[in-house]
Amino acid sequence: MEGFQLIEPNELYNMLQRGTGFSSLSDTNFLLLVDARKKHEYNESHVVTAKKAPKSDNGLFMIPYDAELECKQNIVVYDSNTSELIGASKEHISLPFSVKFAIN
Asked: How far apart (Å, rounded) are the C-alpha atoms in residues 16 and 55?
């Protein structure tokens, strides 16, 4: 499914385990994991292969410089307190890949 979707952590786990014989984490084109938590939280602990989402001067999250979006099948953004998506609807934005937001 293309567009935005809110998923539970167990759905992310299942997505990562879909590979036949090995985890999908080893396929660099399958998934981009973006950690949108504060820097100290990322430094303390993060999901393997996750990239820290940098913030712009006006406080908006940016795509990591080495994200290679044109190659990714899925993009998952996670933080520690999101419970709903506001302003991100499939009708307004068309993307060639799926963006999922993992919630606690």
From this structure: 27
